[in-house]
Amino acid sequence: MELELFRQDLIQTTTCSSGTLAVLPLTEEKKTQKVATGDLSGVIQSFSVKKGEFSVAFKTLPSAGCKVTSLVLGKGKQQKDKIFVAAGNQIRGLNKKGKEFFKFNTQLTETIRRVDVFEKNIWSAGEYVHNHFIEGKDKALYLSPDRINDAEVVPLFSPTELWPVLACQDRYVRVLRGSEVTYEAPTPSAPVSLKYVLASHDPQHRFPNAKEVLYGTDTGTLVQLLLEPESARQGFTLGNPRKQGAVSAIYSGIDFTKTGMNNIVVGREDGGVEVLDMEDGGRLRTVYSLKLTESINTLDGGFLTGLLAQEFVMHTFSGKVISFAPPGGGLLVGSSEPTKVKATKAGSAVPVPGAEEEERRASYAKQIDRLRGDITALKQEIEAERTRFAMRGGDTALLAISAPFTVQDKCKLEPDEACYVLTIESAVPIFTVAIQCNAALQMLDVPTNVAILSRSPPDEVNGNLTLATYRCQDSTNRLAVKFKVREGRSASLSAFVIPAISPKAAVVLRHTIRPLCLHQRITVMDTSRPTNELLITGSFATGDAHAWVTGLLPDIPPTLPPGQDGASFVFQNTLLGTQLLCRYRAGEARFVSDLVSTLGIIHEHIMREATAAKLRVSVSFNPSAQSLQHSVALVWPQLEKQRTLKKSFLMLEALQELKMQDGDLSYLSNEYRTVLERADKIRQEYKEQPQHLDHLVALIKDLYLDFCKLSGVSTPKQRLPALEQLLNDTSSTLEQLMEFLLGQR
């Protein structure tokens, strides 16, 4: 069945962080539930809706130094209606009327991203540190090996003993007991959101004692974990075949489809929202979906605008609070007569469709009148401020400096396409975004962008090898910049975001592109592959080796946990599928890979850094001719495809001219007729990746040079033109290429 939901825009806050909205429990007075929100301006407010009228229970004043980063309800029996807020390193408690009854300065150096409260227990999660306090005193501390993206507390042992569950960037969900990791569950990609679900989605009741946790990943998948005190089992996995955004929020507390099991609501970073229903066989299906223009930060639900039906509510990045109600629920404004109802076969009564439609129209009209009144009041405030500013002799240049706006951005590797996507989201509409980089980037089209891309010639004198501008045509708060880059050297990427407001201001976003930027973390290395080994020894500390690896590869924590002498990481090249093992400790760093060019980049980077730090190191290399053949065999299918594509593209113009002159093309070979039939697709593919063949040719040339260099074999310069000709020749074979690389021709 397809679900029908009606949207209602409730209130507007300023920009917000994830996890800053909560629905208070129902009261005995049978009133609608209150909604509490917090935002980055420091405002905390609670409101409710009754008979279409909005009522604000309380609203605090803005505070620039108290950005709300987490807002939750207490989990104790007497804390269900208590609001706990984290801002900076402080935790505050407010009752449902807004009166502050608790304040705790944790003295932490990290900003608290997530807080949970149960009786006298407080759990706080920062970027890398998770703390447990009892009555304001330290009880336990855990330093995560990688960034903590989200956290929950789950009653695994007993209803009164809650254990923290952490979603970590290094592709693990960790279950803690005190300061120790009880166990950890590997994840397919980095988990970015986590939700403990009271009513388990286990239709066959196979694990009645397990606690269900749902987590979403940065690649857009949704996974079920069934947790027990000693171990975890993975349940269902919902893939992401449509390449939607990362799962940023999860909620499961309402049975919209009346199947006896709560539906799962998923919110994504790209604005996608899905309502999922579980069938008897345990398979998930989407019963409702929509797409907003901004990321979904928080999801919750309850009786928000009426007592006839529950609805789910979301808090978006720009601060919109939006609810979605099924038929019979939501903002319904009727006449003085009671709502007409009809009886069903089951004996229950539901509103007559025509009557409900009339009430919903009246409700929308009332909302429009309220919004018009708000707009009029805002215009009056703006005019008053302009008058006051002019009377003080205000200067627009000074105003531009003091006109901040919030921008959140994320530069993420897309493994399936071996490219990067820089996502920019602004609290105000974007006018233009200028891109500057000291490396050559291949800018790719993004179909969802409502912006015109303009490229400028590279300015090699000043080191600006990439200059591009995105100018937005329509009003949009979100923009995606997609690009490909070659591995080999470190680069700096800057994005200048200019909003569509006056006077003009700009925010500069900076990202570092590392030398091995196309590598992503994996958990286990394939030991059956032929590999090369690079061993570096010397009088360096573990911190020096960690700094080298951090400067080379993405997704490495900036520091190692205290007391840990050494580390080991495994990576996979998203373009070629080759793998890399990094294992290091004080005095020794070992790198193993089936792609010798990767080791060549590592060797060059470490030699440069060690020389700058005046460290004496020794290098030994153990080459493998089999690994050279293995690496070239991985690249060869892509090379053949791109050579054929370029050849077909260059033939298109001549073939189409023949088609215009001669109506009958039966004399052409099957190959040429196929090229004409696929003309549009060939143009599209070549347009998307015009430089891909050049990149692959350069990659094999670098592979050859690095293998000879690290093996101590002199490489005659005159062989490189012959190698390039062989690679571009569509009639050449893999066997001929291997003979050339191994010096047999």
TrEMBL record:
It comes from Volvox africanus. Residues 626-740 form the BBS7 helical hairpin domain. Residues 361-388 form a coiled coil. The keyword Ribosomal protein does not apply. Residues 519-622 form the BBS7 platform domain. Signal peptide: none annotated. This is Bardet-Biedl syndrome 7. Residues 21-325 form the BBS7 beta-propeller domain. InterPro entries: BBS7_GAE_dom, BBS7_hairpin, BBS7_pf_dom, Beta-prop_BBS7, Quinoprotein_ADH-like_sf. Keywords: Coiled coil. Residues 405-509 form the BBS7 GAE domain.
